[in-house]
Amino acid sequence: MVKKVIAIVFLCGLMTVAIVQAMEKNAKEEQEVESIQTNNLPGLAVGLKAPDFELKNLAGETVRLSDFKGQKIMLNFWATWCPPCKKEMPDMQKFFELAKNDVVILAVNIDPEADVAGFAKKMDVHFPILLDEKDKVSSIYKILTIPTTYFIDEDGIIRHKHLSAMTVEMMKEYTGL
């Protein structure tokens, strides 16, 4: 009888160890798959240093990415004619108001031939809009689809990237707010 109890306890212990190891392996594999999927998306890979750039804003002032060193940055590429871009603009404005002191939003317009200032006024957006007049920055960041958004940490490292429109909740999640 004692031998049976010892055998059952031993078998239960082995099963517990096997289950825990399988769960840890599964969690690690899921993280690896997520990393591969994120880095297989078009554009610069997560984990890279965000390339510095210089563009003019709507007021004609020069803005550099490096001006915001030490701050979290949401770098969004968009166009006035893009339906998903239009859809996400109100959420970006809400996020801008919510995260004013915690996250810098830089919205890079890839089609400055359009009336970008009129669009911004009509959409009632007040975050910085930069004009990529020569497609220089969108080329550096390898933008193939819009909207594309990079989330850059305080050290200038790309921590997340998102293709398609986002909600305020998604922006909060990516920035840790």
Structural class: alpha/beta
Choose one word for the global shape. Answer: elongated
Radius of gyration: 23 Å
Q: Count every helix, treating DSSP H or I runs of 4 or more residues as helices.
A: 5
* Mean residue pLDDT: 86
Q: Uncertain regions: pLDDT < 50 for 5+ in a row?
A: 27-38
Q: Tell me the distance between the termini.
A: 59 Å
Strand sequence of the main sheet, in spatial order? 2-1-5-4-3-6-7
Major sheet size, sense and barrel closure: 7 strands, mixed
Order of helices and strands: HEEEHEHEHEEH
What is the number of E strands? Answer: 7
The fraction of residues in strands falls at 15-25%
Question: What does this protein look like?
Answer:
By secondary structure, the protein is of the alpha/beta class. Helices cover 42% and strands 20% of the residues. It is elongated.
Topology, element by element:
Blueprint lengths: L1 H38 L14 E4 L4 E3 L7 E7 L4 H16 L4 E7 L6 H8 L5 E3 L4 H5 L7 E5 L5 E6 L4 H8 L2
Parallel strand pairs: 3-4, 4-5
Antiparallel strand pairs: 1-2, 1-5, 3-6, 6-7
Features:
single chain; 177 residues; alpha/beta; 7-stranded mixed beta sheet; 5 helices; 7 strands; 42% helix; elongated
